[in-house]
Structures are given as C-alpha cells and as structure tokens.
Amino acid sequence: MKNLYIFIAVLFIPWSFSLAKYDEFEDGDDIMEYDDNDFAEFEDVSEDTVTESPQRIITTEDDEEEATVELEGQDENQEDFDDADTQEGDTESEPYDDEEFEGYEEKPDASHSKNKDPITIVNVVSVTFPQVPAHLQNSWESYYMEILMVTGLLAYIMNYIIGKNKNNRLAHAWFNTHRELLESNFALVGDDGTNKEATSTGKLNQENEHIYNLWCSGRVCCEGMLIQLKFLKRQDLLNVLARMMRPASDQVQIKVTMNDEDMDTYVFAVGTRKALVRLQKEMQDLSEFCSDKPKSGAKYGLPDSLAILSEMGEVTEGMMDAKMIHFLTHYADKIDSVQFSDQFSGPKLMQEEGQLTKLPETKKTLLFTFNVPGSGNTSPKDMESLLPLMSMVIYSIDKAKKFRLNREGKQKADKNRARVEENFLKLTHVQRQEAAQSRREEKKRAEKERIMNEEDPEKQRRLEEAALRREQKKLEKKQMKMKQIKVKAM
Amino acid sequence: MADPRRPGKVARYKPPATETNPALEDPTPDYMNLLGMVFSMCGLMLKLKWCAWIAVYCSFISFANSRSSEDTKQMMSSFMLSISAVVMSYLQ
User: What Gene Ontology molecular function terms does this protein carry (chain B) (predicted)?
Assistant: First the structure.
C-alpha cells in the first residue's frame, strides 16, 4: 500500500507542475474531493482564489513524504495553515523558505519538490516586454525631427541677430566716415520727412534690416541727394546660404536730383559692361536715347572693365576730363555704374496696351552705384575706401552744372527728344483717338439729356434747333477740310 | 572754395512712391507670408507636423525680410497662426 502511494505521488509531481502554469486549472478541488487524507499534499494550489485547496492537512503518513511533497512558503496560504501545519512546516522547510516565494503570489506549486529548481517558478511569472511602438517611447530618438526643427529655428534666430548687428555696424561706420564731407557740402544732412521743421537729424533712416537711407539737401545746383546703403540680407539665413553659391556685394546707391536750370540736356552713362547692358534694357531713358551698344573707354584711358553709353560723342568728350578719368581709373573696381540724364524717369514701366496715354515724368538726375569692396565679407574699415567716391559725386554735381552743349549739340539733343516724343505719340495715337471720341459722345449725350429735361416746350424747340445748327456747321467744316486736302494732293 | 551750402534751398525728404514702381519692391516678405499661411492651414487641416514646422520657418523668413514701414499686425498674425498649427498638430 505504501509503495502504491509513493508511486502515485511521484506521478503527480510532474503532472501538477505542468498544470501549475494554468490559472484555469481547477482539479485541485477535485483532488480535494477524492481523499482528504491521502492526497491532501498533492493538491494543486495554483489557484489564488481557491482557498480550500491549499489546506495543508498533514496526514499521518510518513514524515519523509511530507518532507518531500509539502510545499512551504505560499504567502496567501499561510493564513489557512493550522498551527499544527505551521509547526510542521517549520521543521521541514529547509529547501523552501517563505521569503523565497515572496512576491510570487500567483502560482506557488504544491508539487514543487526538492527536484524542482525554485527559479523555474520565475519562468511562470516572468514578464515579457512587448514591443512598444516608437511614438510611444520616451527616448530622444523618437523626437529627432522636432529637435532638428528647433535647432534650425535657433540657428535662424541667431543668424538674424548677428546679421542685423553687422549691417548696423557697417551702416554707421559708413556714415561716420562720410559725415564730415556731407556736412560741409549740404545744409541738411538726414531727414525722414516726418518732422515739421527741416532740421538735420544727423542720422540714417533705417528702412529695413539691410537698407539704410540718407537724404541730404541744401546745396547749390542740386535739389537734394538721396543715398541708399543697400546691404546684403545678412539677417536672412536663406540669403546667406544662397550667397555661398553666388557671391554678391553690398551696394551704395546715390541719386542726385538736379535743378532744372543747372543741367543741360544730355544722357550719358559709364560703368561695367555688364551693368550697362542691363541698364540699357531696363532704364527708359537709356533705351530711348542711347541706342548704340556700350563702347569701350580705352580711347580715354579707362580700364577695359569700364564701358561708355552716350547720346552723342560731344557729351562723352565733355564728360571725360582729366579729373573724371582719374577717378574712374583709380576706383574702377568699386564703380558699378554712373548715369547722368536729363530724361530720367526710372525703370521702364510694364504697362498694358491701352493704359499709356502720357509720357512718364522726367527729372534731371545723376545716378551713382558703387560696390563695397570685400564681396560680402566687408568690415567697417572698408567703408573708408568709399570716401573718395563721394568726392567724385560732389565733383560730378559741379561738373554737370558747368558743362553746356554747344549749339550743334543742343540742336541734336532737341531733335532727339522731339523724335522720342513723336514716337510715343504715334504709339498712343489710337488710344488718344478713342479717348477723344468717347469724350465727344459724352458731351452729346449730356446735351440731349438737357434738352429732354427742359420743361418749357418752347425752350426745348429752340435748344434742338441750336444743336442742329451746330452739327450742320461741323459737317460743313469737315467737307471744306476734305476739299482742301484733295486740292493739296493734286 | 566758397561754401556750397544753401540753407534756403532745402527740400524735404519724400519717400519714393512704391505704388508706381512695383518692380522696385522686394516681393519676398509677401510671398513668404502667403506661403506660411498656406502651410499652416495644411498642417491644421491635414494634421501634418512637417507642414506646421515649415509654416513657422516661412513666417520667420517673412519677418526677417519685411520692411519697417509694413504693418506688424499681419506679421504677428501669421506668426501666431503657424505656432498654433504646430501646437495643434502635436496635441492630436
């Protein structure tokens, strides 16, 4: 009998061990039903909720069996143990301590004997880490786009501040260098147009983070001079990157508006060939009056890089005096273009066919465009090298006043201007005719309405007769004109 | 050399009229403003994070290129729109 029990116990050990992994196993209860005394120790205590099963009823079997089979240290089962049990358990608890199973509350296995490694229980309750989707992870890698964007923004802001400050420093360096010369030549240096009185502000007007203006006025010969410091867009990172591909340089643009009586009628330009070709296409006056290609200035001793666009040879002869040639030769690398024009109206306006009815307004102007040396990498010291160019501007103003065309030249110039005007009128002839026609129709309609609105029938009749007579007269006049033309043709 | 200055002949500064010369104006800030608004609307409607970020960039570029005479309200409004686009695309 004893041997049979041992055999069955041995059989039950692996069976209940395998079943210990499954919560659903409920045979523990069944075992209980069989025989409380014989198989009490083989009960499966895998169920937490099954509290009857872990009842350790120590049978009267041999102590050895109890020692091998009895499972000590199940936490929730401790309460169910009788005092007798615990006493028994204490004495036989060598391989399995209560503390070993702390935390393993799910499946303490009754059948775990000395053959089974307690660590195997861990496998039952092992926690596997499922794959957490990337967007739920809390690591830096999942935010790489955001980090990139924010870094880019910070870089842009830093570049904005640095670029803005650099442009500011360059502008003030330029102004400090030129202030003395300007103040000795102009009564008003610096005006933003907002003050009630015309007082010198002595400051640059900041139009932009890269454009600074200065208006000077109050001098003989000229109405005023507008200086524009057109720096590169150092505050815009995109522009900075674009400039790495295509180098460009800061520019100083000076526009002198001359008084009508202080300049004769001519159009003349000198500058780099590339700039002149561009200006000839863009500028209204250069395209109309200087139809020839830019000529080389070698005849006058100018370097090859410079070319001349002129209305007539006499103007070139007059302009190219010794001092001017000296200026142009020495500072050729800084000069982009110089334009003297009495018909200056700015760049060609892109207008639709039917809109141009009037010639654009012209002003006598001297235009200078200088390139700041350094080709983008300018420092405030480079501004000093532009001072001689300002002297050239002042000299040009005086020269423009002094230079007068001779009789022949004047005639030629007048002819040119008349020709341009005629061309313009021809182009707009159709539009002007249409405009006149519509005006005449308007007049007729207004008169008819007046007649209709007249209440007095007598007056109405009289007005109608008057209108008829007028129309008849017009017809007669036209007929006379036609006859005259026919006679002339014959 | 005689003093060339003539205080009596002073003329006031008149800002050049940009309406008559549209070619002289730099169109960059206007384009960038428009682009920024388009991208931020895309980012909001289609819930695309990268659209919202590009909108922020566009409004920054528009601000950097703007003229000082321009209205700051429009700049601020496009900036706020792009920021809200970024925030909304992350909240969803």
Answer: protein folding chaperone
Q: What is the helix, strand, coil percentage profile of chain B, to 5?
A: 65, 0, 30
Q: Is residue A36 part of a domain?
A: no
In a domain? residue A175: yes
Q: What is the ipTM of this complex?
A: 0.92
A462 & A444 share domain: no
How many residues are recorded in chain B?
92
What is the distance in angstroms between the Cα of A150 and the nearest Cα belonging to chain B?
A: 9
Within a domain: residue B12? no
Regarding whether A426 and A343 lie in a shared domain, the answer is: no
Helix (H) or strand (E) holding A309: strand A306-310
Q: Over the range A457-481, which residues count as b (16 or more CB within 10 Å of their CB) and which as e?
A: eeeeeebeeeeeeeeeeeeeeeeee
**pLDDT at residue B60 in the model:** 94
Task: State in Å, rounded, how far the first CA of chain B is from the last one.
Answer: 76
- Residue spans of chain B under pLDDT 50: none
Residues A218 and A180 placed together within one structural domain of the fold:
yes
Count the domains in chain A.
3
Same domain, A384 and A307: yes
Q: Looking at the 3D structure of chain B, how many domains does it have?
A: 1
Domain presence at residue A67:
no
Q: What pLDDT was estimated at residue A355?
A: 58
What is residue A16's predicted lDDT score, i.e. its pLDDT?
55
Range of the domain at B43: 28-91
Residues A208 and A283 placed together within one structural domain of the fold? yes
**In chain A, which residues have their Cβ closer than 8 Å to the Cβ of B61?**
156, 236, 238
Residue A310: strand pairing partners: A268
Q: What is the pTM of this model?
A: 0.68
- Burial profile A166-197: b = 16 or more Cβ within 10 angstroms, e = fewer: bbbebbebbbebbeeebbebbbbbbbbeeeee
Contact A218 B5 (CB under 8 A): yes
Residue-averaged pLDDT of chain A: 79
DSSP class of residue A23 equals T
In this structure, are A367 and A275 located in the same domain?
yes
Residues A369 and A481 occupy one common structural domain: no
CA closest to B50 among chain A residues: A145
- Which residues 6+ apart lie within 8 Å of A36 measured at CB? A57
Q: Please answer whether residues A253 and A275 qualify as being in contact, where contact means their C-beta atoms are separated by less than 8 angstroms.
A: no
Query: How many angstroms separate the CA atoms of A269 and A338, rounded?
Result: 5
Q: Indicate whether B6 belongs to any domain.
A: no
Per the CB < 8 Å rule, is B60 touching A157? yes
- Domain shared by A275 and A250, yes or no: yes
Closest residue of chain A to B56, computed from CA coordinates: A153
Return phi, psi of residue A310, to 5°. Answer: -145, 155
